[in-house]
């Protein structure tokens, strides 16, 4: 695509700087008129040169050579008579235009010709055509950013590397007429400077519109996040841990309540559907029991270690099999979910054991459902006659111990030992006397234990629960 150099756009037609059209127009223009114009122009140039000699400041970089050239020309203008100057300038410019023409291709020539006609300004000042040209350039630079950038690059490069005095920007046309720069007039030089500036300005919108946002976006993506200080990270980590712990605590309390407030079949469904809930429940339970002075299972294990290791034990609601790990006895472990490979997953209301097959049946904090009777009857079934039933339960769950013990007795047991000394749990030993002494429809209200609920530590004390309930749950709090 043709790239229109701005120095052509801005070149004043009156000084004959229409390189392509000069050949045609020089032949057709009346000589007297042309001579007069040239004369007038030269006069103007001389006057301008005289004023410039006092105004023109030193320019930075490679422009100093151009400045020297201007200075030389100024001196020359001052020395020469106006008439001579006008002739010389006229000849030079005519010659220059004629020199440039052959190096421009047809298509370029026509385009440049059109440009010159269209944009030739009247004498002095910026014409409407020039303004139009400016607008066109701006439009062009937006429409053809790459070409504009290239031309700017070339301009910058040329201004740096140019050793010739007034080299115009190197476009294809310019490179075709390397000597033309030596014959540029002062006004041409000024126009060229103007055009250079315009080239630079042309570059600016591209930079601001396209490159700056890009830079900004790169910065946005590349700039790493401000490093957090150690203390910030520690605090964030601590807060996260605290929140996680709170959430786990809330879920544990919910699950615990579910286990105490419904039948074992419902608890079984709960953990079957959500095995993770079982893990969560046990984490919560372990957290609570760690605060106790003594874990009841350890006390039971201690008792068993004083008995023959040959005794077969059934652990109802074994949890993590801590009992089985603490004794040498064979232990059948039953629970709603398995935290350990030794666990047989089942509802302890129905364990897969033969009748009268075990010596010891253990319920350590596991009488949780509303069907406690089912559990105790199942234990009676699998226990050998004279077998040992050991129960450890949270002390606050018992409203009336005597009623409880009486109900257990009706199910074919005899109380042989009780320990109510511990602050957190009660311990009972029963001996199997025989099958249950009451039918399935008999009411055994003593077996109804209070649920063991865990209070929310962040609640105000008055809001937690009634004093009686609080009393019941206290053993599980520290
Ligand atoms: C509080 S934990 C005690 C665990 C263990 N006995 C200990 O002392 O470390 C109660 C356990 O009984 C289990 N459990 C409650 N009801 C059950 C049921 N119907 N069948 C089997 N296990 C049950 C629970 O799943 C839980 O693992």
Any overview of this molecule?
- 56% of the residues lie in helices and 10% in strands.
- By secondary structure, it is α/β, with parallel strands linked by helices.
- A seven-stranded mixed beta sheet has the order 3-2-1-4-5-7-6, sandwiched between helices.
- Helix 8 crosses helix 10 (186-222) and helix 11 (230-261) crosses helix 13 (275-290).
- The site of S-adenosylmethionine has 20 residues, from helix 12 and strand 2.
Supply the key terms.
7-stranded mixed β-sheet, alpha/beta, S-adenosyl-L-methionine, methyltransferase activity, Ribosomal RNA-processing protein 8, disordered C terminus, binds S-adenosylmethionine, nucleus
What would the average pLDDT be, to the nearest integer?
A: 68
Strand percent estimate: 5-15%
Biggest sheet statistics: 7 strands, mixed
Ions, cofactors and other ligands present here are:
S-adenosylmethionine
Distance between the termini: 86 Å
Principal-axes shape call? rod-shaped
From the alpha carbons, calculate the radius of gyration and give it in angstroms: 53 Å
Helix content estimate:
55-70%
Query: What structural class do the secondary elements suggest?
Result: alpha/beta
Please tally the helical runs, counting DSSP H or I stretches of 4 or more residues. Answer: 19
């Amino acid at each position: 695509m043709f790239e229109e150099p701005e120095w052509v756009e801005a070149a004043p037609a009156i000084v004959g700087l229409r390189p392509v059209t000069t050949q045609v127009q020089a032949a057709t223009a009346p000589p007297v008129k042309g001579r007069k114009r040239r004369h007038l122009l030269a006069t103007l140039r001389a006057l301008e040169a005289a004023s410039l000699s006092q105004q023109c400041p030193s320019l930075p970089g490679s422009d100093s050579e151009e400045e020297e050239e201007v200075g030389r020309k100024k001196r020359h203008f001052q020395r020469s008579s106006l008439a001579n100057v006008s002739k010389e300038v006229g000849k030079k410019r005519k010659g220059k235009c004629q020199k440039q023409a052959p190096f421009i291709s047809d298509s370029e020539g026509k385009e440049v010709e059109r440009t010159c006609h269209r944009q030739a300004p009247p004498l002095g000042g910026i014409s409407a055509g020039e303004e139009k040209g400016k607008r066109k350039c701006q439009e062009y630079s937006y429409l053809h950013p790459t070409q504009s950038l290239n031309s700017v690059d070339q301009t910058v490069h040329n201004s740096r590397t140019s050793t010739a005095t007034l080299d115009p920007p190197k476009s294809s046309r310019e490179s075709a007429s390397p000597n033309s720069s030596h014959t540029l007039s002062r006004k041409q030089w000024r126009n060229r400077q103007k055009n250079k500036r315009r080239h630079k300005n042309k570059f600016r919108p591209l930079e601001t519109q396209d490159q700056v946002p890009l830079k900004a976006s790169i910065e946005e993506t590349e700039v790493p996040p401000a490093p957090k200080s150690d203390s910030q990270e520690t605090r964030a980590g601590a807060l996260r841990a605290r929140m996680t712990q709170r959430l786990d605590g809330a879920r544990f309390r919910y699950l615990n309540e579910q286990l105490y407030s419904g039948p074992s079949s419902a608890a079984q469904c709960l953990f079957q559907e959500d095995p993770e809930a079982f893990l969560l429940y046990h984490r919560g339970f372990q957290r609570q029991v760690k605060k106790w002075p003594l874990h009841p299972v350890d006390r039971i294990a201690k008792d068993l270690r004083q008995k023959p290791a040959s005794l077969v034990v059934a652990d109802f609601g074994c949890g993590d099999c801590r009992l089985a790990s603490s004794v040498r006895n064979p232990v059948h472990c039953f629970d709603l979910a398995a935290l350990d490979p030794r666990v047989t997953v089942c509802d302890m209301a129905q364990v897969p054991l033969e009748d009268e097959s075990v010596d010891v049946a253990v319920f350590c904090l596991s009488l949780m459902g509303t069907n406690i009777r089912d559990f105790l009857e199942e234990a009676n079934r699998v226990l050998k006659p004279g077998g040992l039933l050991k129960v450890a339960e949270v002390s606050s769950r018992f409203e009336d111990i005597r009623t409880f013990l009486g109900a257990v007795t009706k199910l074919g047991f005899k109380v042989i030992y009780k320990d109510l000394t511990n602050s957190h749990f009660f311990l009972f030993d029963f001996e199997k006397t025989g099958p249950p002494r009451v039918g399935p429809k008999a009411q055994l209200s003593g077996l109804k234990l209070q649920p063991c609920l865990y209070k929310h530590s962040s609640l105000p004390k008055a809001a937690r629960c009634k004093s009686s309930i609080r009393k019941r749950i206290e053993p599980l709090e520290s």
